[in-house]
Amino acid sequence: MKKWLRNLTVLVIAGLLVLPGMTTPALSSPVVTALVSFQQPPGLEEQELIRSLGGVIKHTYDVVPAVAALIPEDKLDELAADPRVVSVEEDSRARAVGTMVPGGLLQMYTGLARPQSGGGVVKVAILDSGIDLDHPGLAVAGDVTFVDGTTSGDDDNGHGTMVAGVVAAVAPQAELYAVKVMGQGGWLWWSDVIKGIDWAWRNDIQVVNMSFGGPNEPPKTVHNAIKRASRKGVILVAGAGNLGDEGYPDLVFYPAKYDEVIAVGATDETDTRVITSGWGPSLELVAPGANVYTTTKGGGYGTGGGTSLSTPHVAGAAAL
């Protein structure tokens, strides 16, 4: 009896999988993360539009009338054709624009007449990999994360802690906010960058430091968010990038290349442009970016270089 039941079960399961005359269903379309901009702030109708196409909304922005959503790839054109939709853009990535280097000559920041306020009551958001929340040399006023799989703005890469240390050295009384948009490997999604800008916009942040970027223009939704924040009076500062030795004219990374963002290049101990620093007509300011002494993840101190560390010099000066 047991053997007969077992054989019957196998036959039933096999019949459920493939029956005579039945064709196997086609595989569903790959799903992509898209930035969907609407004519107006997305409400119930816009949400239903996304769902009707098999999409899932990941985040709704306030700074721009847009959402980040998971959309079946074969539905992107249909979504873009809807009259309520302004644009549909696939998400893409950028990365940090600085690295840790061995110890050497420690460049000290001395080129700024510092007011007595020290940058007090000014809020500076570090959009990065987070900040070491337990570092004895850093006082973090608040933290938030937009990186999947993380629960706080605590730094799990090290890049953001180095950036924060430079801001704190230049403007010691400024309020630092760890806004985690960068993952452990140093990469970040532009959709998460918009979340960080959105958070800064809603929380009355006055200065935003972005020590990351890439040579390729990101989705236009990123620029729209930056323009909206800039119109509110937020000062946005970003690294020019570290491909200046490639011989291309105006090789300044995005988002630094946008007119609303201060593009910062790197100089060495002799005030000469670091050969890898981005340069060209889009470059607006330069600051120390070679062998910069700063805070490191785990409570220590070390040196680093690149436009990642020249950028927070300017963000700190902006706070002052």
Description of the molecule:
This protein is of the alpha/beta class and 320 residues long. The protein has helices at residues 2-17, 44-52, 76-80, 159-170, 190-202, 220-231, 307-319, and strands at residues 31-38, 56-60, 66-72, 85-90, 93-96, 99-100, 123-128, 140-145, 175-180, 187-189, 207-210, 212-213, 235-239, 261-267, 285-288, 292-296, 300-305. Helix 4 (159-170) packs parallel to helix 7 and helix 5 packs parallel to helix 6 (220-231). Residues 1-27 and 100-113 have low confidence and may be disordered.
List the helices and strands and how they pair.
Blueprint: H1 2-17, E1 31-38, H2 44-52, E2 56-60, E3 66-72, H3 76-80, E4 85-90, E5 93-96, E6 99-100, E7 123-128, E8 140-145, H4 159-170, E9 175-180, E10 187-189, H5 190-202, E11 207-210, E12 212-213, H6 220-231, E13 235-239, E14 261-267, E15 285-288, E16 292-296, E17 300-305, H7 307-319
Helix pairs in contact: 4-7, 5-6
| Largest sheet geometry | 7 strands, parallel
N/C terminus separation: 85 Å
Q: Structural class per helix/strand content?
A: alpha/beta
Q: What's the SSE pattern?
A: HEHEEHEEEEEHEEHEEHEEEEEH
Low-confidence stretches: 1-27, 100-113
Radius of gyration, in angstroms, nearest whole number: 24 Å
Provide the spatial order of strands within the biggest beta sheet: 8-9-7-11-13-14-15
Q: Estimate the global geometry from the Cα principal axes.
A: globular
Helicity level, as a percent range?
A: 25-40%
Portion of residues in beta strands equals 25-35%
* Average pLDDT: 86
